[in-house]
Amino acid sequence: MLHIDNISIDLGEFRLDEASLDVAPGEYLVILGPTGAGKTILLETIGGLYTPRSGSISINGRQITNRPPKERNICMVYQDFMLFPHLTVEENIVFGLRSRKTDEEDAKKKGREMARLLAIDHLLHRYPDTLSGGEQQRTAIARALVMEPNLLLLDEPLSALDAQTRESLVKELKRIQKITKVTVLHVTHNFEEVFALADRVAVMNRGRIVQVGPPDEVFRKPNSEFIAHFTGTRNIFRGVCSMDSGASTIRVGTISIASRTCREEGEVYATIRPEDILVSRTPITSSARNSLFGTITGIANNGMFVKLTVDAGVPIVSVLTRQGFEEMDLDIGDEVYLTFKAAAVHVF
Amino acid sequence: MRRSWFYYATIAASVILTVFLVLVLSLIVLRPSADALLASLASSEMQFAVGLSLATASVSTLLCMLIGIPAAYALARYSFPGNRIINAGLDLPLALPPLVAGLGLLLLFGTTSLGNWLADVGLVFVFTPLGIIVAQFFVNFPCMIRIMRSTFSMINPRYEYVAKSLGCSDAGAVWRVTLPMSRTGILSASTITWAKGIGEFGAVLLLAGAIKWKTETLPIALFLNMSTGRLDMAISAALLLILISVCALYIFERYGGSARF
Fold it and tell me: Is-above-0.95 flag for pTM?
């Protein structure tokens, strides 16, 4: 549907360097990368704010590389909402329909339907500066979706929101995309958004798209040092969760991990921060509910800390202080116990 | 804590200035008898001056808006060759004595073929009310540009981009989003431009002359009546000018929001 072919652009501080990307209709593609990787400029170039120095962009087979934004029907939602402060929520939502000279009654009807879909229909007469962050972002999303855009661009849409609002908006985005079947490009630096939303993930670095694929594949088989480093700083598992009398267990390959909560039964992702895992040579008796046994397969020393990779059925990364590492006198091939609390297992 | 002499000296300076200002202004207000003042204010000459001042300042402010706002927009948003030179050049009239500006305008409209041609098609600027408008416009447009330039540059261009992605043309995005968002800036810019236009003397004197019942704005009326010794008339013109300044300052401070000169 969207076909980006080798686009380059240089804006001094930010640039794109022969970036290529294909997006399928109805796909939810998340673009992940560190600050300054060129994520926002990629979205803004697709939207038509900048003309690339070379390369081409087409949508549904139509060349749009040099078309102005208004001819593209690609809508953008920014981290800081960019709601028009002089217009009410309703006027913001129908803004685009009015530019299209949609019949006023029709525009209002569509606007109200979209507001209902995003659960902001009780706020239609309020001005943006009286809304909470989550409500503002819902309004911005409604304003874009009511256009029935070819493509919805989300530029870190959840970064300005508190954790609870973010979580509910993630669910909302997923639900709304299911209903509207809109194709989404979503930029973030938050791993959880990748696993919660993405059909595929594209990793960007220094103006280039360095790997594209299903989240699982990109995290399991990083094709470069950069991605391995960027994604490998934490343990991410995919498994099946089951709940039994209040306790939940996630089955990952051959091992079981106890966690405090599963959001729902079935397929889930879980992460454990390496520093939450205690490494020992003998089993530890404590209140921690997870104790795994495995063999050290990798040791990476980076000064203050030592990163251990342990094969406990699945590879698990743990971090030790330099001092702790030396006291335990560990080496590759040694067998160790890994202990962590159920609360350290984050499920999403 | 013991305050330093510097603390007292700086405060004293501000107090002295205020006393000086109040003294000067109160003399104007208190000097004439109330009866004489009312008679002057009601005189048809003064009413003519008020009418002419209001009309010329309003028209010149409108012209400043029509040309100054688009120019300020370009200077705030686009980087184009010569941007910096134009930016600096358009500020120049702020520092230029209005008399000098008036002289230049008189030379342009009075001695060049462009001036002659304009006069031939009916646009006579020398010693006419039309000249008042041009003189006010020339001296005051930098003021409009400065305020509007800073207003526009404080508005994130992404608002316009969002508007364009929602189907607006370049001009449409400015019309529907940027201008409404700049309304406090526009209000304060036009208030200041208008008030300065009402008070403009030097440039008006040179280009439009000081002709009783023809180019007699309030400042010109003050000057003419002062030179002929009619103190009450001069003072009532001054009073009206003070009143207008105070109103303009109030509007600027009250509704100007974050607009800065």
Answer: no
